[in-house]
Design a protein that fits this description.
mainly alpha, MetI-like fold, 14 helices, about 75% helix, about 0% strand, disordered N terminus, MetI-like, BP-dependent_transpt_permease, ABC transporter permease, cell membrane
Length: about 300
């Protein structure tokens, strides 16, 4: 009897007993490995020609703004009246302005100022608006009060906000940032509230509430992640709008004050020289157009990529 048992390996019985289960697990693992992973948002964005172009343009714009002090051939305030209002190619690549300052340097630093102004405004305004929208969707008793307040803010144009804030404070970048931040709050709140209401109707939210998940955990784990897609699209589109609105406020004298380089202020400064030195006003206007176009294209492509109904 012992000789017969010695012929059987110790793990043979276990292998025989668990053979079907092991085969099933191995087959399931092979099936999972055979399923291709879903492409990420960045991969989908790069596959779209318009998205790849917009993303590349935005990256170049951001890099130019960040590294402006190293890319600029001269200081943005270094003037030479002997070379004032020189055409592109006569003095520097893109000519000079009315003070003889290099236009390449002024455009790089003007882009840096406009991007910084837009970034602060969007982060502050959209951050507050997102909190208001989430609170209005999650707490119905205060929804009416919060959204009526947002409607009141939405009824005031951004230019009017800029005029009022400049009258209280003084014209400058601070007044523009405050005006753009306040004008972004109601728009963001409406977008976030609509997205949050759709998420709160899902069954997994009810399941989480039934399991006793706290409000903070519900917001952090379920509500905010599932609202990110529409918010990302809105913020990208809003960034381009804020650049344009900030340039408009600076154009009428409420934004950056001389000698600060800012695209809207530079376009306004060149109005007096349109007939004999159009590049002073045209070049900053062209940069504003490119920046706004890049962010609008990126926002439109993000909307198509993140929305399964619009995805091709």
């Amino acid at each position: 009897m012992k000789s017969i048992l010695s012929l059987v390996k110790p793990g043979a019985a276990a292998t025989t007993a668990h053979g079907p289960a092991s085969d099933a697990a191995a087959s399931a693992k092979k099936a999972e490995d055979a399923i291709p992973a879903a492409p990420s948002t960045l991969q989908l964005l790069i596959r779209d020609p318009a998205g790849a172009f917009a993303l590349t343009l935005v990256i170049l714009i951001v890099l130019a703004a960040v590294f402006a002090p190293w890319l600029a051939p001269q200081g943005p305030w270094d003037g030479d009246m002997a070379n004032a209002l020189k055409a592109p190619g006569e003095a520097g690549w893109l000519g000079t302005d009315s003070q003889g300052r290099d236009m390449v340097s002024r455009l790089l630093f003007g882009l840096r100022t406009s991007m910084l102004m837009a970034t602060v405004s969007v982060v502050a305004g959209c951050g507050v608006g997102a909190l208001v929208g989430l609170a209005a969707a999650y707490y119905p008793p205060v929804s009416g009060l919060l959204m009526r307040l947002m409607d009141v803010l939405l009824s005031f144009p951004t230019i009017l906000f800029g005029l009022a804030i400049a009258a209280v404070l003084e014209p400058g970048l601070g007044a523009v940032v405050v005006a753009l931040s306040i004008s972004s709050i109601p728009l963001t709140a409406r977008v976030v509230r609509g997205a949050a209401l759709g998420v709160l109707q899902q069954e997994y939210i009810e399941s989480a509430r039934a399991l006793g998940v706290s409000d903070l955990q519900l917001w952090w784990r379920h509500l905010i992640p599932n609202c990110l897609s529409p918010v990302m699209v809105f913020v990208t589109l809003r960034f381009g709008q804020v650049i344009l609105l900030g340039a408009a406020l600076s154009f009428i004298g409420l934004g950056a004050q001389p000698p600060i380089a800012e695209l809207g202020a530079m376009a306004s400064e060149g109005r007096s020289f349109l007939f004999f030195a159009p590049h002073v006003s045209v070049l900053p206007s062209l940069v504003i157009f490119i920046v706004v176009l890049a962010f609008n294209l990126l926002g439109d492509t993000l909307r198509d990529v993140l929305d399964p109904k619009l995805r091709k």
